[in-house]
Amino acid sequence: MTIQGAEFASPGKWHLAHTTWFFEEFFLNSFAGYVKKSEAYHFFFNSYYETVGARQQQGLRGLITRPSLAEVMEYRQAINEAVAKKLDDGVSGELEAVIELGLHHEQQHQELFLTDILYNLSLNPLFPAYRQPPKKPIVQTAAVLSTMVAFAGGLESIGHAGGGFGFDNEFPQHQEYLQPYRLSSHLVTNADWVAFINDGGYRNPLLWLSDGWKTVQTENWQMPLYWVVRDGYQTMTLDGLQEIDPDAPVTHISYFEADAYARWAGKRLPTEAEWEVAARPQKIAGNFANTELYRPIAADGNGLEPLKQIYGDVWEWTASPYCAYPGFRTSAGAIGEYNGKFMNGQYVLRGGSCVTPQDHIRLTYRNFFYPHQRWQFTGLRLAEDAR
Q1: Which of 122, 157, 182 delimits the end of a domain?
Q2: pLDDT tens column, 292-328
Q3: Distances from the Cα of 80 to the Cα of 36, 72, 384, angstroms
Q4: What's the rounded Cα separation, in Å, for the pair 303 and 127?
Q5: Which residues, in sequence order, are CB contacts of 167 under 8 Å at separation 6+?
Q6: How many domains would you assign to the chain?
Q7: Are 309 and 183 within 8 A, CB to CB?
Q8: Assigned domain for 326 exists
Q9: Do 38 and 74 reside in the same domain of the chain?
Q10: 110: pLDDT strictly greater than 90
Q11: Spatial CB neighbours of 158, under 8 Å, sequence gap ≥ 6
Q12: Residue 348 lies in a domain
């Protein structure tokens, strides 16, 4: 709960404390006379809110050996009780909105908690498991050939229309014109990726963006993150080292890899607007954290939905840079640092993953990561222009 394998992968204990700090800083601290539990906690567990004050450097969070895990859990309990009491007494609509944001923020960290623990444990050559494998077996289904599903395009409304919670980066709803296009009915699978590897995909510079090829050479990428070769391909999971399922979606790939694969396959990545329009008719259901499998599984060939696994299993890379929608306005105060200041140099992902809480995902939800990052459960679906 304290180890930190890289700057981007925080310790589990830190996630527990930071989400608690969020409620203390942005909710309880709004009440006159409130005294913070600890100035040290205020320093240790701020993430990136410059206007709030100084903080522990992100890459040094693993050095926070104190407070202990027990003390962090006591902190969580105390803040939970204090927040509940204030809510029982009644609060303003503005503070209710802070609570709602805090709950969705906590769900984001529930996902990060698992992805970061996986990364931190993956650096141990013993490949230790986070937990005992679930008793419920993963049901494998027969492979189904992927087809390209057509969409007419046209003028479409994109983004959150209001009437429920949404992060600031989902607003405002606006219109975009889409040319006719097609999306693959299935996500790219591990078997597909093995074919890419065997065809020299990681050795062909013509497939890669310049920065991607530079990263491949510098990092010596030869396969997705967590894959190892032991009598075939195996992968590190939260259940320890496991054989890859050839029919399950490939995951832990960067934008650079997704883009190179799409070019190798003679296709492209969808834009986030194309993804949103295609996903709109489909129910938000799938392999989320609620299943407690914590790894992508093969598509169910029995469903009638045109796009398999559009939600859950893996976050789907899009070709869209992460930037503001037309008319976007940053929120006032420190809360305005939540999303807007990261709209630079990243790409949008859609749909959620096998470690995302299901009720956290919306059609308009925009996740975003840098193009070289691959420790999250990220995969891809192919697209093409309709000709």
Answers
A1: 122
A2: 999 999 998 767 789 999 999 999 999 999 999 999 9
A3: 14, 12, 49
A4: 35
A5: 104, 338, 339, 365, 366
A6: 2
A7: no
A8: yes
A9: yes
A10: yes
A11: 173, 174, 175, 176, 272, 273, 276, 277, 325, 364
A12: yes
Q: Residue 238, CB half-sphere, CA atoms under 13 Å: how many?
A: 22
Tokens 């993430």 correspond to what residue? Answer: 47
Q: What gap in Å lies between CA 134 and CA 212, rounded to an integer?
A: 37
Confidence label for 143 from pLDDT (cuts 50, 70 and 90): low
Query: Cβ contacts of residue 89 below 8 Å, gap of 6+?
Result: none
Gap between the Cα atoms of 79 and 81, Å rounded = 5
Does any domain span residue 34? yes
Higher pLDDT, 62 or 343: 62
Which residue segment(s) compose the domain that 38 sits in?
Answer: 12-122
Compute, in degrees rounded to 10, the torsion defined by CA atoms 167, 170, 173, 177: -170
Q: Which amino acid is at 162?
A: G
Beta bridge partners of 233: 229
Q: What angle do CA 308, 314, 318 make, to 5 degrees?
A: 85
